[in-house]
Write a structure and sequence with these properties.
Strand content: under 5%
Oligomer: single chain
Number of domains: 1
Number of helices: 2
Radius of gyration: 26 Å
């Protein structure tokens, strides 16, 4: 969507023209189907338990490297 906004209507027309030139008569259809679905990004939010576990494991590693004895890990 951001790409389409950046190139505007003129940009979309230009891309369509180039596509038609490349594919010839095969590109001229009565109906064109466009898949505009976007895959979600794999984002971990700070509220996730998975991220808390990762932070705790990193802290334990840092403590071991520093020679700090922990009561519980």
């Amino acid at each position: 969507m951001y790409f389409r906004k950046r190139i505007g209507k003129e940009g979309v027309k230009k891309i369509l023209e180039v596509s038609i030139k490349l594919h010839g008569k095969k590109a001229k259809e009565k109906e064109v189907l466009v898949d505009t679905t976007v895959q979600e990004k794999n984002i971990t939010f700070p509220t996730d338990t998975k991220l808390y576990k990762k932070i705790a494991e990193r802290c334990v590693k840092i403590a071991k490297e520093a020679g700090i004895k922990l009561r519980q890990t």
